[in-house]
Every structure is written in structure tokens, then in C-alpha cells.
Amino acid sequence: MSDVRVVVFDDAETAAGHVAGLLLGRLRAEPASVVGLAAGNTPRPVHAHLRAEAGGALAAAHLVGLDEYVGLAADDPAAFRTQFRRELVDPLGLAAERLHTLEGVAADLLAECARFEAALADLGGVSWQLLGIGRNGHIGFNEPGTPFDSRTRPVPLSETTRRDNAAAFAPDREVPRVALTQGIGTILSARSLVLLATGETKAEAVAAAVQGPCTVAVPASALQRHPDATVVLDRPAARRLR
Ligand code: F6R
């Protein structure tokens, strides 16, 4: 059994409100926190709560992205950076230079990953990291098989992940085949981890991550190695837990 804390709420909306509350609590104690953001569908209601409730709480924080598609410019509508701008940075009036993300169109992808790791180190590391989970158990874009000591790097995206993320792309566009992602080792370096999963499609991955063996076959099971990891679920995502 792991030491991962699991908290279950009746619905996704309440789970998201709880996650926003956890972050706002951290920011009250440490306004200059380095906050790690996840993109995608699951955090959208968290971002909505923050827009409604954060006031100036994020003004002194730094925001750090987990991953980005290769080949998408920073202002591409499907880029993760654009999601953070649209859902948090612009509506909350945050300074754009406080948002730190991987550059998906960098000429030298390895150099870009090294630059990002150095920027994280300069910030003193991530204090509070929000994670989502893929149906295959991925965190960031670390697909099954990724070593737990991996750092930020370019990765091929699995077909499952490309299919799951296709809705964010216009019908005439291909989902990128490569992304840049913080490694599992990078993610585990954050002081606190909060993984939010909602909906029944995540139930199997959640059960494997929290109650299965700690194995590279399930990237999110790496949370079992972290001293301060919380998994926040709605009831459908918790359905397979014992
Ligand atoms: C996004 C990320 C991914 C997503 C995961 C779940 O920055 O790192 O691991 O969290 O693919 O995506 P959604 O929330 O869209 O189901």
C-alpha cells in the first residue's frame, strides 16, 4: 500500500473546487510559490474556480507548464501555453513573463529541454504541482515504460494519447507525434503533488496508480514514491478503488 492520500468527491465540480482551495491555501502561506500547471480538460474547472476566487493570490507566483506539443508555436490555439494564457494568465491579469513553458518550435529541442530544467532550478524548483492522468496512466507526456528518474526531454506520443487529445485540434489538423515533457524525475522533484482525475474513463488508471505496484508500466504509480502526493477524484474516477 502507498502513502498517497486519496480524497473522493461526489462530482467533478466539487473535486475541482477542492483542488483550487488546496492551491489557494498554499499561496496564502507562500505567495511567491512556483506553481506547476497541467493542461488538458481535467484542470479546466480548477482554472474556472481560480478565476472566480483567486483575486490577486497568484500575482507573486510563478507558473510552470508540464509539457508542450512539438511544432506548435506559443500562440497556437491548441498549444498548452495558449490554454494557460486564455484560462488563467490573461483573465487574472498576471504578468506573461511569470509563465514558464517549454517552447514547442525551438530549433534545438534538446537545448530547449536543458534551458527549461535550468530555468526550473533558478526558480528553486516547483513548490506545488497539479497533474492530470492519461487513460494509460501517463503523467505529463511520460508514457508507460518511462524511467522514474527521467528528466525533461522530447518524447513520441502514443496513439492512445494522440486520439484522446484530438478534440483540441481543428478537424483538418494532425495531432503532433512528438512532445516535450518534464520527466518523471522532474515531476517528483516538486515539493507537493496533486493529481486530479475525473470521469470513469480514468478509473482503471487511477486504481493502478494508487493501489497497484509501483512500476514504470504505470507512470502515475511513481506518486507512491513521493512524500507529499494527494490524488483528488470524483466518484466515477474512484470506482475501481478497493
Ligand atoms: C497535460 C498533461 C497530461 C494530461 C492527461 C490528461 O499537461 O500533462 O498528462 O494531464 O493527458 O488529460 P485530460 O485532462 O485532457 O484528460
Secondary structure blueprint with pairings:
Elements: E1 5-9, H1 12-29, E2 34-37, H2 44-53, E3 62-65, E4 67-69, H3 80-89, E5 99-100, H4 109-122, E6 128-131, E7 153-156, H5 159-164, E8 178-181, H6 184-188, E9 192-197, H7 203-211, E10 229-234
Parallel strand pairs: 1-10, 2-3, 2-6, 3-5, 6-9, 9-10
Antiparallel strand pairs: 4-8, 7-8
Helix pairs in contact: 1-2
The structure holds fructose -6-phosphate.
Q: What does this entry look like structurally?
A:
The longest helix is centred in the N-terminal third of the chain and has 18 residues, at 12-29. This protein has helices spanning 12-29, 44-53, 80-89, 109-122, 159-164, 184-188, 203-211; strands at residues 5-9, 34-37, 62-65, 67-69, 99-100, 128-131, 153-156, 178-181, 192-197, 229-234. By secondary structure, the chain is an alpha/beta fold. The protein contains seven helices and ten strands. The protein is globular. The protein has a single domain (5-211), classed as Rossmann fold (3-Layer(aba) Sandwich), CATH 3.40.50.1360. The mean pLDDT is 97. The strands form two sheets. A seven-stranded parallel sheet has the order 1-10-9-6-2-3-5, sandwiched between helices. Strands 4-8-7 form a three-stranded antiparallel sheet.
